[in-house]
């Protein structure tokens, strides 16, 4: 027999992409999921492959120094039946000189970029052909993959969906902002692989790092560290919280991860300026989904940042409600992290499922700014000793808050205040644009027997400050929405639940604030020295907050923190109430003109009314949407937008993917920033 000569071959990128749900990633390259077969076709010249005469074998290699013992290299012959334990190749069909072969990786293979080589031999003669490269991803569809997720709707949302909603605002006024994860957009996969190859563990020991890329726990920890740049590790994002973002992008301006990842790569892996928690979380979510690990962005309202690990957040106020002597402990209005779905074979049974990864740089873990993966079930059960970083996250959702009021003589008085940490933990619902509350996955109902057991295990006093029915109650109420550009009222509502008349002093103070709890200048104040409360009665005291007072110092987080202090003269007791008021931005209106169809021109009419009493200058709309627009579309308006006038423009675009997509819009100007809007658009497939 003459030698078997390979003439051409076809990696069948399109067909394999459809089968492996990676079609949008790989028009040019082969992208497949582990444990699932993929087909390639070989064409020989001169003569066809003869079974029994010719021997075919493949080599797959990943990483800079592949070796068989660490799982980064494998050599396997073409056989009649697949091998369950390792890589395998099986003849599917033969048609003339064309031979179809089905290749399959084990469901525990390392993910990453592989090179594929064919060895063809007849007798003692043989030739070797480099057939090309392919990328191997985690496989949430394979029951033996450690990221296996049973429900198809959940796999679609947490692995395949390229857009989502991230919850922000305040606990009493939850807002959602659209986000373009874009994990299948061009260049995102190579950037994610580059991120793995830039991480310090890879640079220290390339072979060990590549051999551990079969483990989603390891990958999650690497991604959590690499999304922030706090370790001189060439991470993706620089964090900043001081409202000075002139030398970069304001964290509020981003509407997607693709722009951020592309900038990181373009500027030679220099950190992109700037991120805050939801930006870090969203970029990490993109990278994890891109690699095939089911992931979602989660928001925790009233999130405690407990620096000394005592599960108590101490706040100090003076008699006018101003913060004194700041401890490093903080309460953030909200804090976002990522949950990724994976088994935890490294732990005892019972900790598989959702794991917290928090890429926002807050505290070091094993010497590096990363956090997790921490099993949500371990947080709920108070198992603080398990890997990784559970005490810090346990505190974020469970710490107690104690307000100390500092008297003029320097003495401190502990106030009563019902604990509010870890509320309304939220994520986008599966397949719908509504909010799913997942607080119950992090903690047992307050006051339940289970909750007490967990706190005892975590060596944490149960919340001591339960609201008693007796005595005085204080809360802050908002009668109607607070709109940017308008004045509005807040009310201190006092209940006297006793049979005696009480005389008190009431202090009400409003300040602009950032979402991480820092406050700015005062924008409203009332001090009533003589409030008489009738027995068993309720009294409501208004405070008017004027736009002319808050407009100048409102941060891009749009939050005003209202503090009320009620001092009872008879007993000297002090009650504190705090409420974060979210100032609503105007709505962005999006109209779609024309019939939405794949590869046919569509027009979006996008507008917003200026609600302020002053003109808006340097107005700009940024529009993007996976499958709809070709990257980001930016429209700068030449004229200022006068008060109550409309900023408006038309965008032409050609959607290239059928199905449901989100067109997302961000509006920027000198006085109104980070205004977001989106519109769901269903694109009909192109007629065949």
Automatic annotation (TrEMBL):
Subcellular location: Cell membrane; Chromosome; Cytoplasm, Cytosol; Mitochondrion
Cofactor binding description: Binds 1 Ca(2+) ion per subunit.
Catalysis: reaction(s): L-glutaminyl-[protein] + H2O = L-glutamyl-[protein] + NH4(+); L-glutaminyl-[protein] + serotonin = 5-serotonyl-L-glutamyl-[protein] + NH4(+); L-glutaminyl-[protein] + L-lysyl-[protein] = [protein]-L-lysyl-N(6)-5-L-glutamyl-[protein] + NH4(+); L-glutaminyl-[protein] + histamine = 5-histaminyl-L-glutamyl-[protein] + NH4(+)
Keywords, sorted A to Z: Acyltransferase, Calcium, Cell membrane, Chromosome, Cytoplasm, Extracellular matrix, GTP-binding, Hydrolase, Membrane, Metal-binding, Mitochondrion, Nucleotide-binding, Nucleus, Protease, Secreted, Transferase
GO annotation (BP), single: proteolysis
Required co-factors: Ca(2+)
EC number(s) recorded for this UniProt protein: 2.3.2.13, 3.5.1.44
PROSITE patterns named in the record: TRANSGLUTAMINASES
Entry GO CC: chromosome; cytosol; mitochondrion; nucleus; plasma membrane
Stretches assigned to the Transglutaminase-like domain: 269-361
Gene3D superfamilies in the record: Immunoglobulins, Transglutaminase-like
Protein name, entry field: Protein-glutamine gamma-glutamyltransferase 2
């Amino acid at each position: 027999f003459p030698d078997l000569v390979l003439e051409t071959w076809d990696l069948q990128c399109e067909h394999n992409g459809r089968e492996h749900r990676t079609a949008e990633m790989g028009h040019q390259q082969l992208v497949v999921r582990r444990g699932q077969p993929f087909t390639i076709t070989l064409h020989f010249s001169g003569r066809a492959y003869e079974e029994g005469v010719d021997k075919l074998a493949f080599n797959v290699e990943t990483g800079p120094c592949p070796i068989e013992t660490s799982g980064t290299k494998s050599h396997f012959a073409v056989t009649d039946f697949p091998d369950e334990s390792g890589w395998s190749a099986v003849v599917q069909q033969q048609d003339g000189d064309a031979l179809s072969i089905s290749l399959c990786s084990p469901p525990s293979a390392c993910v990453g970029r592989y090179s594929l080589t064919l060895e063809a031999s007849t007798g003692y003669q043989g030739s070797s052909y480099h057939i090309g490269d392919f990328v191997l991803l985690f496989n949430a569809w394979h029951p033996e993959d450690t990221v296996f997720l049973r429900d198809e709707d959940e796999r679609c949302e947490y692995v395949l969906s390229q857009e989502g909603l991230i919850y922000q605002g305040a606990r009493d006024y939850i807002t959602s902002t659209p986000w373009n994860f874009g994990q299948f957009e061009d260049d995102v996969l190579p950037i994610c692989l580059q991120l793995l190859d830039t991480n310090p563990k890879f640079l220290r020991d390339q072979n060990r790092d590549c051999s551990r890329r079969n483990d989603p726990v390891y990958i999650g920890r690497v991604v959590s560290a690499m999304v922030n740049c706090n370790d001189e590790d060439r991470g993706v994002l620089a964090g900043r919280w001081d409202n000075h973002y002139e030398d970069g992008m304001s964290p509020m301006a981003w509407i997607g991860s693709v722009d951020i990842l592309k900038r990181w790569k373009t500027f030679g892996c220099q950190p992109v300026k700037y991120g805050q928690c939801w930006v870090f979380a969203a970029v990490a979510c993109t990278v994890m989904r891109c690699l095939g690990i089911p992931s979602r962005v989660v928001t925790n309202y009233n999130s405690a940042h407990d620096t000394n690990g005592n599960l108590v957040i101490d706040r100090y106020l003076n008699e006018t409600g101003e913060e004194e002597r700041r401890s490093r402990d903080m309460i953030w209005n909200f804090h976002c992290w990522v949950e990724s779905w994976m088994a935890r074979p490294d732990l005892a049974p019972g900790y598989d499922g959702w794991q917290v990864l928090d890429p926002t740089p807050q505290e070091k873990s094993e010497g590096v700014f990363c956090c997790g993966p921490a099993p949500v079930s371990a947080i709920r059960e108070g198992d603080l000793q398990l890997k990784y970083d559970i005490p810090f996250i346990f505190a974020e959702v469970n710490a107690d808050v104690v307000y100390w009021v500092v008297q003029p003589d320097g003495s401190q008085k502990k106030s009563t205040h019902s604990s509010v940490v870890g509320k309304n933990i939220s994520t986008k619902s599966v397949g719908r644009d509504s909010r799913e509350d997942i607080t119950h996955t992090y903690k047992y109902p307050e006051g339940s027997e289970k909750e007490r057991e967990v706190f005892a295990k975590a060596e944490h006093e149960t919340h001591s400050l339960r609201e008693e029915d007796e005595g005085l109650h204080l809360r802050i109420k908002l009668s109607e929405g607070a709109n940017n550009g308008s004045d509005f009222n807040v009310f201190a509502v006092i209940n006297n639940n006793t049979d005696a008349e009480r005389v008190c002093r009431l202090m009400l103070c409003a300040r602009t604030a950032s979402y991480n709890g820092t406050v700015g200048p005062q924008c409203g104040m009332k001090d009533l020295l003589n409030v008489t409360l009738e027995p068993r009665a309720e009294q409501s005291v208004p405070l008017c907050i004027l736009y002319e007072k808050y407009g100048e110092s409102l941060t891009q987080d749009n939050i005003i923190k209202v503090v009320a202090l009620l001092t009872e003269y008879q007993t000297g007791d002090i009650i504190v109430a705090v409420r974060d008021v979210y100032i609503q931005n105007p709505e962005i209106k999006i109209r779609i003109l024309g019939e939405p169809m794949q590869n046919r021109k569509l027009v979006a009419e996008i507008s917003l009314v200026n609600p302020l009493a002053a003109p808006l200058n340097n107005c700009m709309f940024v529009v993007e949407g996976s499958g709809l627009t070709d990257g980001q579309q930016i429209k700068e308006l030449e004229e200022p937008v006068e008060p109550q006038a409309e900023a408006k423009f038309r965008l032409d675009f050609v959607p290239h993917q059928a199905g449901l997509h989100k067109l997302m819009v961000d509006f920027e100007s000198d006085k109104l920033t980070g205004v977001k809007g989106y519109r769901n658009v269903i694109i009909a497939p192109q007629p065949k």
